[in-house]
Amino acid sequence: MTAHLARATIAGLVLGLALLPSRATAQSQQGAPVVVEPEAMSSPSLEPEADAGEGTAPAISRSVTPMLAPIPFRNSQLGWGLMLMGGLFHRFDSDPTVKPSAAMLGGFYTENGSWGVMAVENAKLGGDRWRLRALLNHSEVRYDFYGIGEGAGEAGQSIGLEQKMDIVTAAALRRITRGVYLGVTGLWMDASTALRDTSGLGAYPGLSVTDTAQIGLFAWGLQGEVDTRNDDYWPSEGTLARLRAFFFTDALGGSHTFQRYLLSGSWYMPIRSERLVLATNLTLCGVNGDVPFWNLCSIGFGRGGLRGYTQGRYRDSVMTTGQVELRYHSSGRFGAAAFGGFGQVAPSPGDIFNAEMLLAGGLGARYQLTSKFPMHLRLDYSWGRDGGLLYFGVGEAF
Q1: What are phi and psi of 4, to 5 degrees?
Q2: I need a surface site. Which of 100, 153, 154, 181 has the fewest CB within 10 A?
Q3: Judging by DSSP bridges, how do beta strands 23-24 and 376-384 pair with one another?
Q4: Distance CA 166, CA 293 (A)
Q5: pLDDT tens digit at each of 398 positions of the chain
Q6: What's the CATH code, domain 18-394?
Q7: What is the DSSP string of 171-223?
Q8: Where are the domains of the chain?
Q9: How many other CB atoms are there within 10 angstroms of residue 198's CB atom?
Q10: What is the C-alpha separation between 153 and 291, in angstroms, rounded?
Q11: Widest CA span of the chain, in angstroms?
Q12: Cα 354 to Cα 321: distance, rounded to the nearest angstrom
């Protein structure tokens, strides 16, 4: 499990959320709420290359609009926590129909003592033909390590780790055609991992001496995005697909050489009306090379993470997950969801076809935070093979 919090860590652009329970804090000149894509960071997670997502917002007339957003969440490793984000929506061009850029500062704290701070800039230039993103983050996270492989996850034995991580990322994406962006990115990390309790503990399978030493990582990468959704908050049709490829090298202080790939796609289809939507998601992850354990692929991480399994309990070099969710929205502010899915981990692509399928399913409730935009508080309970887990945050799971 990457002990840095992506979305709270490597990627966390919560561009603007509502002050609970009823309205957004950022206001346009006419007084209309300025709300933004909440899914960019609904709660801390440990996915290493969740980038500072593009975020979306309706047009605003002011050149600078402040916002402040407290975001409660519950994470299967970190427990209950609170994220506080503040910042400014601003513009680099004069076109008022283009979604604004955003500069954000934020931090989080959880009940198990994990915490982090970050600064994010998400710039849109040239009528949104270019998207430039940058993030600085420091986090100190406490979590349980279960080992590597399907068998380690089944055994359910873990040790407590504490990880400190500094992260710097930058990305530049160019619009190729409507809804399609391609670009390059750079990533630098400095991490140190330590056992929380060493009394009577010998060597732990899958945890090497180098894993608990201070290490530096540097990578360049490629990114691609396709977004044809008809709505950012409650999509009823369209596709959202993202590809991330990172190539870690020993240049510029890097101590490990490996590659990491992540492909995720979500599809949305209305059933009779937009109030009843079928959403599906498929995520593929793979790594190759001298990979630190916390950069392996893990079930439950990031946007589209399979609910019902503790983040990082099942990790290996290859992972696949698939989910289907039926979403219902009433004529008022309340909604509900029923979902199911599967996950698999394996040491190689060929082994994934023989890996055990980890099934999960659950039910959820939704509450719309603003009357104008269908942005929701999400409360889910999911059952997996090892038991049930509660999830709470802002924005849909995928």
Answers
A1: -120, 155
A2: 154
A3: unpaired
A4: 17
A5: 443 343 333 333 333 333 333 333 333 333 333 333 333 344 454 454 444 444 444 444 557 788 788 888 998 899 999 999 888 888 887 777 777 888 999 999 999 999 999 999 999 888 889 999 999 999 999 999 999 999 999 988 888 999 999 999 999 999 999 889 999 999 999 999 988 876 544 555 556 655 667 888 999 999 999 999 988 778 999 999 999 999 999 877 778 899 999 999 999 999 988 889 999 999 999 999 999 998 999 999 888 899 999 999 999 999 999 999 999 999 889 999 999 999 999 999 999 999 999 999 999 999 988 777 677 889 999 999 999 999 998 889 99
A6: 2.40.160.50
A7: EEEEEEETTEEEEEEEEEEEEEEEES--TT----TT--TGGGS-EEEEEEEEE
A8: 18-394
A9: 9
A10: 19
A11: 64
A12: 14
Q: Tokens for 363? A: 């039910």
Phi, psi (degrees; rounded to nearest 5) at 96:
-75, -10
At 348, the amino acid letter reads S
The helix/strand/coil state of 83 is strand
